[in-house]
């Protein structure tokens, strides 16, 4: 098969030009006689790769020197413990917003280390909306306020950055990182598992305001201590070098596309196109409050669930892959991250149109 | 440059055929229309890749069903906390053998979680030997006995498996894993960062006797809980899929070479050849007790340290790379893991011979 349109929620499709470059450099990176994955992480060559990736990410996301940028091992799930271990401090409690499955996982893990105040939840609505911020019951003593800007499974996205005058704002941006411009200066910590908009899985990028470093609890594993990782330029141990390199290639590609501003425009266009189609075709439905529909993950259902298997089979035959919804919710989901070309969305809509005509 | 001989201690050289296959499959894994790094970790294709890798590793290392095999994120440094968090249990203390820099790091991290008894140390000798086991002061109440079969920096290797009748034996095999036959049934836990003999960095393989699961302390981060990782087939979160795939390619390559028995014979021949040369050429020296010289990492010094720079420059010019010793010890070090061909060792000896003739 030639390259398919892969709508997987993560690990997710990567820009074809990035994969081509990785392929071409696999056995010999720029005349060094070795693959990037064979290089010492302390070699001049790899340090250059690593520093360039950080510089490009800072430029793309607009990260000032007030923040450290960390390239850690693991993913959002490991950060679910890392965050409370590093930030709960003496206060011992934190505020969390519950807007879906990933919020819940973050809450469950943080609850093992301290008091978690769920300041707002949209569980009653089946996580189809985001409670108005005026109703949030924030606490006076919270060490931080955690939320999930984009719920990958539910397809629910904050279109705004919450106000958090009292506590640093902490965001799991795994599935929305670099998908549109975001004012990083509003955040205490941003973290993002790489396998959606950044690169391969096993890498997690953390952007942390430097005044939040150095507060880790005594029992924090050294490899989870933000201060240690920052002090060592993310090389306290051997980092995930090849993933870091691939992330750097993705950052270069993003810059070539015009950065996150241009990417945001493309992503909005892709998402609108798909949602508009779903809303105007009776055969399909999306349950999410239109104000908070995700630009990245578009869940939808068919008018008849019994046709799901046939829908997926036909999609696969056309090279439209991984459209099944998450096993916990069913239905369909199209993840349309940065690397999904607009042509992929067009091809999906064409197929959905035809399927609805024939089987609707 | 064509492919160099890369003597880096880790990340380290990989078999060229593995890199070629990874290159050829980069954009389209076997007609799926996507790269392995773009696949859902729960897809049939990736599950097949993952399961085959585990099966091949079990076959290569002789791992019985009494053991779980885990593919975790991180490396040995993250295991330094994971081990005590999971195994200290009610006993709260463990025995450690101190034979070098990596032992010391493991000891330092474990000491943060409980009582560490250093049962033997070769620090007085500058870590050039291993104390006779009859002198070890093991404790009656140790939850486990930890040692480092091969010290990557010092170039010191246990040629034997210590007896540990009272406590499960735990080994950091990062730099010796799969380099020769080892009786896994003698161990409670074996762990190995991938970036020497297994694959790219960011992945750590853990082989754990199943009766040692389920003993994690309350504060253990979920992503570090062996029981959770085992119960979820190393997919509690999104694993480092691409690294896992590459590890699988390395395992296939090892099987083609004849497995660890054949590899052990080759490694012994490579190591003997290099040590014999060093011992018979007055210009070079290796300080390690000949009974405990590493088959994987061969440190050596020149008769005149002032020639180090020139030696390295000449080596680089011939495509013999990364021979500088670790920054903490200086001198030279040739890491000759499984993937270093015997021809690489021959080329190194040729160069060393010539250099000694000209400058010695």
TrEMBL record, chains A, B:
Where does this chain mainly localize?
cytoplasm
Q: How is the cofactor bound?
A: Binds 1 pyridoxal phosphate per subunit.
- Gene Ontology MF, one: O-phospho-L-serine:2-oxoglutarate aminotransferase activity
One of its GO biological process terms is: pyridoxine biosynthetic process
Cite the Pfam families for this sequence.
Aminotran_5 (PF00266)
The UniProt annotation places L-glutamate binding at 42
Tell me its EC number(s), please: 2.6.1.52
Q: In which pathway does it act?
A: Amino-acid biosynthesis; L-serine biosynthesis; L-serine from 3-phospho-D-glycerate: step 2/3; Cofactor biosynthesis; pyridoxine 5'-phosphate biosynthesis; pyridoxine 5'-phosphate from D-erythrose 4-phosphate: step 3/5
Q: Name one GO cellular component term.
A: cytoplasm
Q: Which UniProt keywords apply?
A: Amino-acid biosynthesis, Aminotransferase, Cytoplasm, Pyridoxal phosphate, Pyridoxine biosynthesis, Serine biosynthesis, Transferase
Q: Can the keyword Cytoplasm be found in this entry's annotation?
A: yes
Keyword hit for Transferase:
yes
User: Where would you find this protein in the cell?
Assistant: Cytoplasm
Query: Which residues in this protein are found as N6-(pyridoxal phosphate)lysine?
Result: 196
According to its UniProt record, this protein's enzyme class is transferase
Q: Which reaction does it catalyse?
A: O-phospho-L-serine + 2-oxoglutarate = 3-phosphooxypyruvate + L-glutamate; 4-(phosphooxy)-L-threonine + 2-oxoglutarate = (R)-3-hydroxy-2-oxo-4-phosphooxybutanoate + L-glutamate
Which cofactors, by name?
pyridoxal 5'-phosphate
InterPro entries xrefs: Aminotrans_V_dom (IPR000192), Pser_aminoTfrase (IPR022278), PyrdxlP-dep_Trfase (IPR015424), PyrdxlP-dep_Trfase_major (IPR015421), PyrdxlP-dep_Trfase_small (IPR015422)
Biological role? Catalyzes the reversible conversion of 3-phosphohydroxypyruvate to phosphoserine and of 3-hydroxy-2-oxo-4-phosphonooxybutanoate to phosphohydroxythreonine.
- Indicate the quaternary assembly: Homodimer.
Which NCBIfam families does the entry link to?
PRK05355.1, serC_1
The entry's protein name is: Phosphoserine aminotransferase
> What species does this protein belong to?
Marinobacter manganoxydans MnI7-9
């Amino acid at each position: 098969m030639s390259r398919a349109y892969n709508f997987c929620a993560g690990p997710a499709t990567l820009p074809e030009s990035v994969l081509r470059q990785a392929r071409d450099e696999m056995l010999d990176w720029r005349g060094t006689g070795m693959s990037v994955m064979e290089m010492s992480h302390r070699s001049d060559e790899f340090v250059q790769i690593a520093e360039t990736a950080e510089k490009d990410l800072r430029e793309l996301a607009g990260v000032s020197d007030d923040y450290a940028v960390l390239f850690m091992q693991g993913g959002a799930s490991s950060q679910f413990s890392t965050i409370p271990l590093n930030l709960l401090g003496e206060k011992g409690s934190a505020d969390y917003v519950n807007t879906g499955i990933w919020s819940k996982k973050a809450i469950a893990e943080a609850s093992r280390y301290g008091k978690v105040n769920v300041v707002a939840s949209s569980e009653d609505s089946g996580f189809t909306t985001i409670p108005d911020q005026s109703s949030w019951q924030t606490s006076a003593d919270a060490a931080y306020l955690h939320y999930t800007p984009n719920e990958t499974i539910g397809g629910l996205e904050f279109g705004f950055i919450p106000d958090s005058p009292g506590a640093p704002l902490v965001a799991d941006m795994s599935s929305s990182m670099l998908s549109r411009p975001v004012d990083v200066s509003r955040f205490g910590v941003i973290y993002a598992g790489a396998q959606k908009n950044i690169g391969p899985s096993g890498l997690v990028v953390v952007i942390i305001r430097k005044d939040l470093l150095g507060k880790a609890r005594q029992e924090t594993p050294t490899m989870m201590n933000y201060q240690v990782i920052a002090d060592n330029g993310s090389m306290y141990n051997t980092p995930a070098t090849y993933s870091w390199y691939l992330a750097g290639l993705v950052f270069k590609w993003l810059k070539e596309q015009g950065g996150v501003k241009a990417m945001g425009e493309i992503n909005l266009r892709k998402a609108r196109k798909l949602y508009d189609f779903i809303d105007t075709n009776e055969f399909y439905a999306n349950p999410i409050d239109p104000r908070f529909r995700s630009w990245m993950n578009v869940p939808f259902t068919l008018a008849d669930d019994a046709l799901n298997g046939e829908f997926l089979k036909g999609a696969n035959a056309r090279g439209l892959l991984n459209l099944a919804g998450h096993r916990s919710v069913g239905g369909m989901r199209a993840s349309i991250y940065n690397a999904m070309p607009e042509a992929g969305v067009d091809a999906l809509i064409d197929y959905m149109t035809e399927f609805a005509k024939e089987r609707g």
